[in-house]
Protein: Carbohydrate esterase family 16 protein
Amino acid sequence: MVLRLPALFVSPNLEVNMGVATSTPAPVPVPPGRYLFAFGDSYTATLFNTSDTQPSLSNPMGNPAYPGTTTSGADNWIDVVVYNSTRNDTVAYNYATGANMVNITACQGQAYAASGPVKELNDQMALFKQLPTTVKWNATNSVFFNFFGINDISVQVYSGRSYTNATIILAPDIDNYFSQMGAQYSMGARRFVTILVPPIYRAAVHGFGNGTAAPLVRNLTAYWNNAVHSCAKSFSSKYPGSEMEVFDPSTTFNTILDNPTGYGAPNSTCYSYPAGQPCLWADFIHPGIVMQRAFGNAMNAFLDSNGL
Structure:
């Protein structure tokens, strides 16, 4: 992975002309050329605080300092995207918050709600609406990432619901997901990347794919991803001028999990907490450094291939 080095502050150059010292004015700061806005859960979160240091070209994710506070042990996929050397004109506003769901009421996840005030996509959107007008994003220089479903699925399993009952609950949750992307469109967004749920059934909490609930998790993941694909196909016709791309991280995750030693891990059935390596999992559910960085690299290639 190639990291982008922060820009340096340059002091005015002093010149001497016939004994008179003069100074060259400091260069006017160059505004970002691209803006990324991310909404999601702990797979994306870096604990960005909207009241703290804001993103700039010299500090593209604002706060906390790189790589942020993540669940991987180091950087996660969005760090890799933003600090890629080919995106040195990019800043990111990362509203993702751990344990968040699309719509906590729709998916009946109140018993598993995040402890803080931000519990669902609508809460993250409320933070986005506070963005100062001095941030000059527009329809063509921005990309909106939405990555939900992990917690929406998990609460169905933890609540003991059957596949049939879970899908009945998840259907309106997914409808609300795309309605909220429609709200993003209404505020000016035109370019979207929706991220599918990776194979979380292979995480430690589900016995690395061999636990009692693993088949249900796998089936609900397939249901969620298929429904998201279906809704994404009709999004652009419903919202003229929009571009909706769907990114599936499953191939990246499965490739690594199927060949753990090839990626420096002893096996695919361990986790390294809090270091995030050498095991592929950082804890009971979150991917470690290797998988998050591979995820980010795959996303970079995906964005490039779609001109985003």
